[in-house]
Amino acid sequence: MAVNDRETIFLESAPYLLVDDVFATAEYYRDVLGFSFENFFGDPPSFVIVRRNAARIMFRQVPQSVRPAPRPNSSRFAHTFDAYIWVSDVDRLAEEIRARGAEIIDGPGDDDGRRLLLVRDLNGYHIAFGRVLSWPN
């Protein structure tokens, strides 16, 4: 499909997840899943964006008065996840994060033309890491 000057180009997306503790969440994503972050935002600080390569996830800490933060999708429907991130090597990622103490709840394994790894983070969110089996071919 040709791109013209009247077409809007989608560049990236990032899940926006609510948490009870934005600091613990950012540190978990850094220390266990290999993401990085630069700043916390807000006064008091209550928002952070974690990044690994081109993948980003945004986290907002909910005020004490509305805790606990909403629960993961899987608490309402078991066969789902909260974020899906495409990666180049699911097996290598599984080895890396397992060594750092990640809670791997499924995989890596093949599922409907994908190689998939499912992790539960410290908030209970299910984060899927997947690779299309024929990618990059």
TL;DR of this structure?
The protein is α/β, with parallel strands linked by helices and 137 residues long. The protein has helices spanning 22-31, 90-99; strands at residues 16-19, 40-41, 47-52, 55-61, 83-86, 103-111, 114-120, 126-132. It has two helices and eight strands.
- Given helix and strand content, the structural type is alpha/beta
Reported by name, the CATH topology is 2,3-Dihydroxybiphenyl 1,2-Dioxygenase, domain 1
- SS summary, helix count: 2
Q: Quaternary state, please? A: single chain
The total domain count is 1
**What is Rg?**
16 Å
Which residue ranges are poorly predicted, with pLDDT under 50 across at least 5 consecutive positions? none
Topology as a string of helices (H) and strands (E): EHEEEEHEEE
**Percent in helix:** 10-25%
Shape: globular
Approximate strand percentage = 25-35%
The assigned CATH architecture is Roll
> How are the strands of the largest sheet arranged?
1-4-3-2
